[in-house]
Amino acid sequence: MGFFDRISEGLARSRERFTEQMNVLLDRGPNVDDEFWDGLEETLILADIGCAAASEAVENLRDQATRKALPDAYAVLDLLNDQIASRFCEGGEQIFGGEPALVLFVGINGTGKTTTVGKLAKEATDAGRNVILGSADTFRAAAIEQLEVWARRAQVEMVTRERGSDPASVCYATIERAEETGADLVLIDTAGRLHTSADLMRELGKVVNVVRKRSKLPVYTVLVIDATTGQNGLAQAREFNRELDLDALIVTKLDGTAKGGIALAISHELQLPIVKIGVGEGLSDLRDFDAHDFARALIGNFDARQN
Amino acid sequence: MLENLSERLQGIFSGLRGKGRLTEDDINAAMREIRMALLEADVNFKVVKNFVARTKERCLTAEVLESLTPTQNVVKIVLDELTELLGRTDSRLVLSSRIPNVIMLVGLQGSGKTTAAAKLAYLLKQQNHSPLLVACDVYRPAAADQLQTLGQEIGVRVYRGDGADPVRIAQEGVRDAIDSLRDVVIVDTAGRLHVDEQMMEEAQAIKHAVKPDQVLMVVDAMTGQDVVNVAAAFAERVDFDGVIMSKMDGDARGGGALSVRQVTGKPIKFISSGEKPDSLEEFHPDRMAKRILGMGDMISLIESAVKVQQDQEELEVAERLAKSQITLNDFIDMNRQIRKMGGISKLISALPGGDKAYASGQVDEGALDRMEVIINSMTKEERTRPEVLNGSRRARIAAGAGVTVTDVNQVIKKFNETKKMMKKMMPAMEDYQGGKKGKKGKRGRGHRRMGIPGMGGMSMSDLRKLQDMMSE
Fold this sequence. Notes:
The complex is a heterodimer of chains A (307) and B (472). Chain A has helices at 3-10, 12-26, 34-46, 51-67, 73-87, 113-126, 143-154, 167-181, 198-214, 232-244, 262-270, 291-299, 302-306; strands at residues 101-106, 131-136, 157-159, 185-190, 219-226, 248-252, 274-278, 286-288. Chain A has 307 residues and is of the alpha/beta class. Chain A has 2 domains: 3-89 and 297-306, Up-down Bundle (Four Helix Bundle (Hemerythrin (Met), subunit A)); 101-289, P-loop containing nucleotide triphosphate hydrolases (Rossmann fold, 3-Layer(aba) Sandwich). In chain A, helix 3 packs antiparallel against helix 4 (51-67), helix 8 (167-181) packs parallel to helix 9 (198-214) and helix 10 (232-244) runs parallel beside helix 11 (262-270). Chain B is an alpha/beta fold and 472 residues long. Chain B has helices spanning 5-13, 24-40, 45-61, 70-86, 113-126, 143-154, 166-179, 197-210, 227-237, 256-264, 285-292, 298-307, 311-322, 328-340, 343-350, 354-359, 366-376, 380-384, 391-401, 405-434, 460-470; strands spanning 101-107, 131-135, 157-159, 184-188, 214-220, 242-246, 268-272, 280-282. The longest helix of chain B is centred in the last third of the chain and has 30 residues, at 405-434.
């Protein structure tokens, strides 16, 4: 039971559907024809990789497959898997690897920031770390209460102010409290905001600046992105990165049929490592990221052979 | 990142001007671009495939309008087709005669159900209904608190019940509505994945228990290809009646709207944009079609401009402007017309990319009103001949308008700048009015300056310049 099995449970359903599609393709035998390539492109587009990227990947693959005289569709898919995996940016292990850290979670509304913070708090506390939470989402109704519930579940302390107060001051207070208690992992939830709302983006920029200046722990800013997001995800990530200089990505909601292909584009273009993936609602459903497994889930080729 | 479709088509057809008729090759090339544009807007792959096939058919058989360029012809067909597919249903919320009317909201986690519920309640309240919000999300921590807070803000009663059985809470909510004389019940349910069997069963159970008159599904405008699976699953399991597209204030193209409509046949009833309770808007298929193709909301803007058109006046103003003899009276007229079109912010936000400028806080709505007050404090002579304004006149105007002399000076400065700008625009305007003069051909029709009727030939970009000046 390797890591691969764990990740694949969460994606089981998408895999099944993909298997069906892929089987149709693969039943044509090792001779790959135009339909195979079209089907592959379609699969990639349906995984939200993006139209241009999918076409490019298929063109590229087609060229290489001919040059390397690959024997059959499986070999082609292995090659594709390697190519996709290599496009993901590597690194980011230090963020949740056990070193002292302060992590800020940012993203648009409804991607699952608060839930992710809650799960991470629980996971890290169970691992014996001294965690403190900061609820800097002073905007959305009941966001503080939501994180409070998580704080209770994980039995960690949470710092906040009343709704409507300045998020930067919440962060400041959180850092002070963390220093008093000697916490080695500080997780700060921020209010979701659309990347197009410049005022709110500036506000967030200020929050991140305050934290970077004040904190003695290394500060990481992590963008939380929803796997169901389409091509707009790239625009979101670009804006957040421009304003905040991001350090990493977390992809949530991979337990549906969405494959999260947009994460590939973001990770590659902005050179951001993916540090965690959310594959379900349970506490233990926040997993480490593995490029090959993600790539495999994205194109789902393995079970065409294994099942 | 993306050019809009018409610009791209323009590129393809640039060699075709004057040819009049499109060959099949031309259309194939155009269809590739259309396919790309739709996929980039997150319209589902299969929907795109069908759409392109159908549209191509129509392009091949359609009457080519001679008055339009090939690009315009293709764009027109695509837009027509897209608009038709998005549905022509009007998006008013029709309540049945049953009291209380029950509306149930469903959707994925994070799609914006709770926010949409509050907005819907606000809308109903504006229409003299007395809604009740029922919080049936017992899973997400503090979800009921969120609804409660939103309910308080808009002054709508929220029933949250106790216990962890959403079906019972929903039933009690309906009873509570009867007891407290509410005529519409809005049931906010927990977000769920379409593949989560247990949660889907619960949604069915709630539906069965309260027999909603309408089930609305909330769909995030940013959803990608997967929207088809989600919508199909919800349609099969809970059978919704309509869709609310949320997060439309972002810059996502919202191609999911087309996918949902195509796959389920359910109409899009509302679009929800923003955090404020009054930001639930009617759905316009034509505007959505343009948004999906990345064409901004230019046409709505032109329509609203046409509404305020006053032919005679406009001609006079245009003439005076052309001679760049604008007076402060024109300044006021211009301001009033801008207001009739929904204010400068609406104007700006209807322009492609304009939302950004608006959002970045460069737009000051009040600036125009303050200016008008100051100009109103001037005598007729001062308005037509601003050059007579000396120190003592300015002091009098400031006192009359209740502002400082600096404010008055600023208005005059802005006026002078506008005048200067008008002078600069003049050659362009003559080009526009005279038709054939100027650099003919090179830039193509699509690039021609778009005049706003009633604004004396001012173009959009000039309007923005004007706005920039005003907000200095």
